[in-house]
Batch of 4 targets.
Target 1
Amino acid sequence: MEFLSLIYTIPAFYIFCLIWRLFNQRRNQECYILDYQCYKPTDDRMLGTEFCGKVIRRTENLGLNEYKFLLKAIVSSGIGEQTYAPRNVFDGREASPTLEDGILEMEEFFNDSIAKLLQRTSISPSEIDVLVVNISMFAAVPSLSSRIINRYKLRHDIKVYNLTGMGCSASLISVDIVQNIFKTQKNKLALLVTSESLSPNWYNGNDRSMILANCLFRSGGCAMILTNKRSLKEKAMLKLKCLVRTHHGAREESFSCCVQKEDEQGRLGFHLGKTLPKAATRAFVDNLRVMAPKILPSRELLRFLVISLIKKLKITSSTKSSSGGATKFTKSPLNFKTGVDHFCIHTGGKAVIDGIGMSLDLTEHDLEPARMTLHRFGNTSASSLWYVLGYMEAKKRLKRGDRIFMISFGAGFKCNSCLWEVMRDLGDANVWDGCIDDYPPESLANPFMEKYGWINDVEDENSIELPDFLK
């Protein structure tokens, strides 16, 4: 009997060990953000209204119509006059950048934000196991990741990923890389660095689809530390719940709507095509189709299913009906607020924010963080999401248990999104210190709109009399 009892006990023991191992492994696969640090350049790099006028005026290859087009674009952009530009713009050398300009812009960001982040978290550079760097439009040799390793003397066995060409949605791609590493390796610390180098990418031609980029993009960046260490769970700010990546590069319209290329005169720039809104919409819809079941409660999915079924039946019956007088049925969209508390939207431009707000039926309160970030910092490319997150934190909106939905778009064409859970009440000092009390202002009309907004009311471009700074 003792022998039989032992035989029955051994399989049970192994089953218990297997279950415990699977449970323990899953716990080690969690992905947390310990802290993040957005970059605020120095005040001498701030773009005021008058200085922007000087930059436009000294662009030699622009004709009269291009000046008018640029002015209209700036007036309608939703960007204020406290955003930042690279130093070579203030030196008047944006049309003839050097390699050193690009490196200097990135090193200023690295030396400021990474140092502050390591100091705040009390983490030594030697503790970092993984480094992921994404800078889309600038590649140097040695790589930018190597420069960070050299500057902070990171370990020789650190796992390094240096991403280029991934566009404005690159930071969530970097998070996905870190998450996948955490699934196979436990007790790791990852440093993620996301930014864009504007110094070498100023367009000096007159193609309207390419001079738009000069109006929209601004200097910025963010460094963050992620971990799957259970011992650091209580210190974590956010926990990653799920992440979905959508890539429409196989579609020619989507692939070619955002592309770096040369114009007819051989001047390098970043082309924003007319098919961009259509490509963004398609990618967004496909992304939500995968993301919705992961983040919405069952009751909302069931409600949507029932409404869709009823609509389909009504359409079928109206088709068969000889009278043809069936009442039209408007499908109710999914209510993402049933599974999401805050929406962190990429500040690609006013139209991007408006479009997402309309698609998800968001209120002005929901869109406020993205609108204010666009106004204060502009489109800082892949790092823009973290400035939006910083606004929410500075306004003390983020409470333990809240869920944050991040949405970003990028060339390729890509739409990436993820859901974070807030691990503790957040309200620490961040990049918005010193100005958060000024937001939202009573009126969001930017200084360009106040001075030159009349240009939007002019129907005949030939009747426009240019401001003095453009004459």
Target 2
Amino acid sequence: MQEPFSVLFSLGNLVAHYNGLTKIRGSIPAAYPLRRYYEMFAYFGIATWIFSAIFHTRDFRFTEQLDYFAAGAGVLYGMYYTPIRVFRLDRPTPRRRSFLRIWTVTCCALYAAHVTYLKLWRWNYTYNMAANVIVGLIQNSLWSYFSLKRWSATHRSWAIWPGIAVAWIMTVMGLELLDFPPLWGALDAHSLWHLGTIGPTILWYNFMVKDSQENIANADWIKDIKA
């Protein structure tokens, strides 16, 4: 095992996503329109951290590509479902449905172009990092906006959890930029970055459940289903 701490903390993230999926299924009704998007978020997270653990166990070109493509899919899916929740694109109005179709095709095309460029044109580390950072910043900005808006409307403490998670992730992201020689030949900045993402992941699933329960209590989702 080449990077044991990175493997360990990748598995920690995997467990956080798996537990989050279990929490979603146990706390949110299957008929709730946003549940399938939250479940897909968990599936992408699970896949991302499985391939991360494999890559950090043994660094081959194939395992590296799996890690990068899974991570890119996870980050891009995060940007995909963010406006669906923030702007409620899941609601069955003609305009929202049209925009959702366009948004879905756009995100699929962006991912296909991303993989094609890296696989067939050039394996570019700088581009890959920049693409993931830009996509992450876009969704983080939307969640910060949503968090402020949601808290202003509800004054519930859980409404600020997305903002806390975003700030947390942005802080630990500095570990990717401020590298240092591995301690004991194993614990490096990258592994600590993986450790730092476990807490926000747990907080995020707790927010999903609280936010869904609030919407369910307002019964708006039942009107959407009947529509």
Target 3
Amino acid sequence: MSEPSAVLTQRHGAVLQLTLNAPANRNSLSAPGVLEGLLAGLADLEQDETLRCAVITGAGGAFCSGGDLRQLAHAPEHETRARMTANAALYRGIATASKLVVAAVDGPAFGAGLGLAACCDLVVAGQSARFCCAFVRVGAMPDAALFWSLPGRVGRTRARQMMLLADEVDASEALAMGLADRMAAGGSALPDALALAERLARGPAQAQARIKLGLREAPMGLEEALAFQVAHAPTLFASDDFREGAAAFFEKRAPVFGRPRP
């Protein structure tokens, strides 16, 4: 009998659901197959033209507990450096993907798990969600791209507090500070995250990709912002999606993006 996959994949139309499936390890990124499964899922998202958005979630009541402290405590420095270099591909892949990624957070998102959620484009927090930049509790410094993603979400002051104090943040506080974008109406974040992803999947792909690119390069100075819009906006105004959006506006109907117009 084969071992269950460490990352389960499920397709919902144009949305790809990636479920971390290592509950015995609280879905640690160090659990065998988790990193590889997430990277494979992100590759599928980018390469499959019929996929528009991904949702990352966790099985067994946890989103992701981060790294394995036992492994980190006993590994020589060169092994840890190599592992962190490999892990960087995950955060870079989410941040630089042309398509959108939504985190559905139920239970703890601690350490690198916080980093996994924070680098996603949108975060939906379930009632049980808890976030913690826990590194300083064990004498470590934040990694998982958190020096980029966390200040971008909550500002430098709140990021400094989260990094230095390592306090836990619940779903309602995460929503208030901008760490989460939505708080699930029901118990679990997944249904709301899937509905949000399906909405995004119906949106204009080229515009979404350029918004994601612009936000990744933010904050911009005035001249940088003006140059960015001149470099990218004219292409969108010449696109089929814009023609469809404009036609739908004047015809007082919902636009249907992603189809060529005559």
Target 4
Amino acid sequence: MNTATISNVQEVNFDGLVGPTHNYSGLAVGNVASMSHGGLVSSPKEGALQGLLKMKSLMDAGYAQGVLPPQQRPDIGALRDLGFSGSNREVLACAAKEAPQLLRAVCSASSMWTANAGTITPSMDSPDSRVHFTPANLQSSFHRYLEPQTTGRVLQAIFRDERHFAHHPVLPATPAFSDEGAANHTRLCGEYGEPGVHLFVYGRQAFGDVRSGEREPKRYPARQTLEASQAVARQHGLTASQTVFAQQHPNAIDAGVFHNDVIAVGNGPVLLYHEMAFLDEEGTLDELRYKMATPLIPVRVPVEAVSMEDAVASYLFNSQLLSNPDGTMTLVVPGECQEREAVWRTIQDYLLAGNNPISEVMVKDVKQSMRNGGGPACLRLRVALSEAERAALTGRVLLTDALYDDLTAWVNRHYRDRLAPDDLADPQLAEESLVALDELTQLLKIGPVYPFQLG
């Protein structure tokens, strides 16, 4: 265990750019928003601009902000692997006729939710003083299972310097090691440069005797396994004193809480969570208190204040919790939180007026993402980096005013205003996407990362 404190550490939020094929296909079982909006017409351009505007506003407020590119979609190679043949046009047409559900899956822009890209351990917690990365296998759904290879190439392209960064293989893509990345992982600490404790939250146990009192959800599948969380912790060299493994409440999963970041969010020493977040609430908090060097600040929202229905509909707990230099925290919530009276009242009267560091709320419009089940926290991958590690990044991925302007212009050049599910078979959409992504890798200066660029 590396016990050294590293100075000049910042948490950088790497947001995923919404891709050119952003659409509403209702692919995610257990994701209430995704299922309820399936078949609606989307706006890829509006979605990408909403995401960029959120990034820009946080950068302007003084928070370190990064950008991650979308995936190559449609993934025609995946269709060919599944037996479709001929030209790209013929493959798309055949898939649209014979297996429209597969076509929708290979066109998904779900990589925008980079909280699922992987799990990160910062250098101050790792035994070799490097930042460690494991891409998530996302094996629980086909449309996300297609992401890890490109995700791994993107992470290795940006975090390339082996003196500072270490990359691990994706876990075996089997139900026993189902891994959904940082959406089920929170690092709690004092200052970012101080050693932290890693809270891994899982939905089920795959092997061995089930722990006492554990049970599985009955309506929707549990996506994260204990075994996957333990494997990632081993890859990163984390010890028992640095980790807490807690089971997500199965009733929450059945209510539509498919990831823990839909019911809890942590940053620094603060853990904001709903009463129904953990099956063993007190045991989880006690273990965190015992292992953390800094006193834990739990902020519990009872079900009487916010129902499970309101929590899932508003994505209150899928907000970003950002640390400020004066010790206060800012909560970045989706606009949907204002639309639920109980949620907005809780934010004003319980969180902002409560005895906790949350002193400000910022409301952001990310409706295009929200309709597919992804709020502000889904859209970002948090990476704590020292000044030297930030300097070692490859490419042009830390947001500046100039990069924001370039990305906004890029979206306006290449993205469609409207996209209906029937448009996914349009071969011109595939061509438009390749042109856009090729230009994007040049704009970000990350080199070739997409299958079509690698030959």
